[in-house]
Amino acid sequence: MNILISNTSEKPIYQQIFEQISAQILKGELQGGYSLPPIRQAAVELQVSIITVKKAWEELERSGLIYTVTGKGCFITELSAEEMIQKRHETVLKQMESDIAYYRSFGLRLEEVIELLRTVYE
Amino acid sequence: MNILISNTSEKPIYQQIFEQISAQILKGELQGGYSLPPIRQAAVELQVSIITVKKAWEELERSGLIYTVTGKGCFITELSAEEMIQKRHETVLKQMESDIAYYRSFGLRLEEVIELLRTVYE
DNA sequence: ACATTGTGCATGCACGATATACACGCGGTG
DNA sequence: CACCGCGTGTATATCGTGCATGCACAATGT
């Protein structure tokens, strides 16, 4: 459970949890077959309600990254290295499309965007 | 008033209006000194409430892109070409920072991001 | 049975979106 | 010059939706 929750962020808490665990799974930091912490324990660690954790877990299950067994726990879906890369790119591309739409609405061309990226990406 | 509102978008309506007008001003499509449509007229055209338009106008004023005169109307702030470019980059960079944080959370390096960008940016 | 796990329901609160009534500014008219 | 009407932005009260929560219920395994 290496999660950082920002109370100042405009994103809902359950989505912050979802995104960070999602990233950790797709980076291979959380191995398939192992289980996630019980929602109660996670709730205590993260200082949030059980239900907030559950909503994050539900999103993860909807994305096919974990599966739930009532009474037992939640387990990480086993993925091959190729599948992880594939899902990671899918996820990033989906977000990137709307990001690009925003940049383009300001009339920026591809090379301008790349130039700005280089100045910010440390 | 060349605005497109998406009801399926997760973004609030007033923010969609704000972003699009903001972009049009900073691209020079809306010249300084000219006035924006009255909020009532804009509300009819955009099929939204007066107050929703007002909230968008307030955001524009807070960003220094327009100024309001009670009883007269709302007018676009006069900006030099350099100021427009500057503000445009400021705006885009602010958004780009959080975009990059997202990409990096998935472990992507700068060159991978650029490669993905090239495949999507048509 | 009991302890541990996930699930479902009812509540409080913040925010987006709305309609209606109010205040300010300008210009025509007596 | 005063007044009133029209067009402008402004403020108040209300409704619906979604985030976040606590508490009680169901399922699993020892």
Automatic annotation (TrEMBL), chains A, B:
UniProt xrefs under InterPro entries: Tscrpt_reg_HTH_GntR, WH-like_DNA-bd_sf, WH_DNA-bd_sf
Name of the protein: GntR family transcriptional regulator
Keywords annotated in UniProt: DNA-binding, Transcription, Transcription regulation
Lineage: superkingdom: Bacteria
Which Gene3D superfamilies does the annotation name?
Answer: Winged helix-like DNA-binding domain superfamily/Winged helix DNA-binding domain
Q: Which organism is it from?
A: Saccharibacillus alkalitolerans
Asked if the record carries the keyword Transcription regulation, the reply is yes
Domain HTH gntR-type: start-end pairs? 11-79
Q: CDD domains given for it?
A: WHTH_GntR
